[in-house]
Amino acid sequence: MIEELSEENVRKILSVVKHPAIDRSLLDLGILKKITVEESRVIITLALPFSGIPKQIEDYLAHSVREPIKNLGYEVEVKTTVMNQEELQKFLAMEKEAWGI
């Protein structure tokens, strides 16, 4: 376990995690919504663009943010929520840009 894991460190570590279908990081897309660091535990909240995301995709996203932190020796809990309208519009704009639409 590395010493003094902070929210900033977790964001930096996870900043390279890309969306599986969009060439952007989960952080840039607004999917990586909230990070809480406790003593030996990190709670990550993912904001999904809408409810009803296929379980496979939700599990993939959770795994992609859980593993890099878990590999440092921390317990990781991943929660999910749904983006608000403003977050969704930003996500959709970035998605279109990434796909060249």
Task: Write a brief structural summary.
It comes from Candidatus Argoarchaeum ethanivorans. The chain is an alpha+beta fold and 101 residues long. It has helices at 7-14, 26-29, 55-70, 85-99; strands at 32-37, 41-48, 75-82.
List the topology elements.
Elements: H1 7-14, H2 26-29, E1 32-37, E2 41-48, H3 55-70, E3 75-82, H4 85-99
Parallel strand pairs: 2-3
Antiparallel strand pairs: 1-2
Question: Top keywords for this entry?
Answer:
101 residues; alpha+beta; GMP Synthetase, Chain A, domain 3; 4 helices; globular
Task: Tell me what you see in this structure.
It is built from 4 helices and 3 strands; from the N terminus they run ααββαβα. It is of the alpha+beta class. The protein has a single domain (7-99), classed as GMP Synthetase, Chain A, domain 3, CATH 3.30.300.130. The longest helix has 16 residues, at 55-70. It is globular, with a radius of gyration of 14 Å. Residues 7-78 form the MIP18 family-like domain. This is MIP18 family-like domain-containing protein. Pfam families: FeS_assembly_P (PF01883).
Which homologous superfamily in CATH is the superfamily?
A: Fe-S cluster assembly (FSCA)
CATH topology: GMP Synthetase, Chain A, domain 3
| CATH architecture type | 2-Layer Sandwich
Distance between the termini: 43 Å
